[in-house]
Amino acid sequence: MNNNYDVLSAYSKDELIELIEIYSKNWLAHDGVWFQSIEQKLGMDEAMEHDINAWTKFTVIEAKKIKDFLRLPERAGLEGLAKALSLRLYANINKHDIKLEGNTLTYTVIDCRVQSARTRKGMDFHPCKSVGISEYSGFAKTIDDRITCSCCSCYPEITDNSCACKWVFTLNE
Fold this sequence. Notes:
Strand order of the largest sheet: 1-2-4-3
CATH class: Alpha Beta
Largest sheet: 4 strands, antiparallel
Number of strands: 4
């Protein structure tokens, strides 16, 4: 019987990077499938309630695992947050930008696979601001409990048409 390392060691670095992208896309597809199942049966409000509940829990799990992988200190600051945000499951499949300035970090999702997929399917945009607030705040607090998060632009409250969404993280010392 082969263990996972034996199987994965047969692939090149480029193939493993491609596999990570496939895993990320599969994970995101699953996230969309369960959400749309609830949305279709019980409506957007019910789906959003479950989405917020799921992301509130998942984002902490994801942040802890990334924090451990990066061997970040308890209070990793904005530099640690920047590294961790870059390793999230969807970071390699959503085009994004990270800017650090003083005690703030701006995270901009330039192209969002979720909104693009919903557009392709003729669906309304996912009203992700409320989920994003919970998700990004929880992720940042797990990386460093001094970091707060605010939304600059996210559907349904778009204030910057140059991106899908924009978030500002502030290190409060």
